[in-house]
Automatic annotation (TrEMBL):
Protein name, as recorded: Aldose 1-epimerase
InterPro entries: Ald1_epimerase_CS (IPR018052), Aldose_1-epimerase (IPR015443), Aldose_1/G6P_1-epimerase (IPR008183), Gal_mutarotase_sf_dom (IPR011013), Galactose_mutarotase-like (IPR047215), GH-type_carb-bd (IPR014718)
Pfam families tied to this protein: Aldose_epim
Alphabetical list of Gene3D superfamilies matching this protein: 2.70.98.10
Amino acid sequence: MKIITDEFGVLSNGEKILLFTVFNGKMFFSVTNYGCCITSIRLPSKNGGFDDVVLGYSSFPGYINNFPHFGSLIGRYAGRIANAEFSLGNIQYLLTPNDCGKHCLHGGYPPYDKMLYKPVTFKNRHEAGVKFFRISPNGEQGFPGNLKMEISYSLTPDNEIILRYKGVSDKTTPINFTNHTYFNLNPAGMQASGSYVSVLNHEVQIYSEQYLEVNKELIPTGNLVDVENTAYDFRKPRSLVSGVEELGGGFDNAWVIKKELDGQKSLAAIVREPVTKRTLRVYSSQPALIMYTGNFLADELGRNGDVYDKFAGLCLESQAFPDAVHHSGFPTSIVKAGELYSEETLWHFEF
């Protein structure tokens, strides 16, 4: 196991941005302390080199804007919160209305992927990686409490990337972290059509019997709907293109993950790419999985001059239920003052 540290860029105030690359002898990933962004996951290719199976930028300046949130840490609350507000006790908290002009998406402003985190590398016989630390101050993004954050990304000898999210707040607050990496397990690059190869040929299986019903603005109604006889039925492996055609558009939805034991990781999804035979298995302690098919990607200039368009990447975001602060029937996302928030996601790659 090896960790390499490089300078990735410099902020306008002179602070240096670092890039950490973790290698297990078979595959490697890179992550920066700017936004805890995963910039690269490279798997062996048939020609003896490596293919990057996530979307991203060639250099640091791309991540300063990064509107699609490539590889980003998302918080304090991933997903949407209706009307950009919530109440705890008798206090109403106002958030950033950055979605549809009235809802809060991915925590609002300032986004967590535009923050600088203190990095500490670690290595043992089981894994090697980086821990990132930051204190989100009381009132940041509109949320209560000084939140001490510890985010870690690590690689195991078994080709597993483990994402751990921890936090303790001095005030009761909603917490819901996730990662917004876009996967494309067959990154063949630009096609003759001028667009990046899509993920629609990927076969997806989601271990879920229900999905969250949403309105036209993608806000949960509170209803859990059985996936049977719907476009959302991925209980058996199914190509994304078949689901997209049945739905009449891309996915940006939450599935309820079958939980074996509370607080333990369960298998949430399997993604297979039929050409390269690469497979990604997603395990998570979280109750929901968002599958987002890159519906809003359009002419995004990415790595090596590639242009990412709709369906160029697939996000599998393990998290709490979106808008849980407004639905008493959803698993709670409220963490009491002094209590530990701790969640874990594991990506297992086969190649």
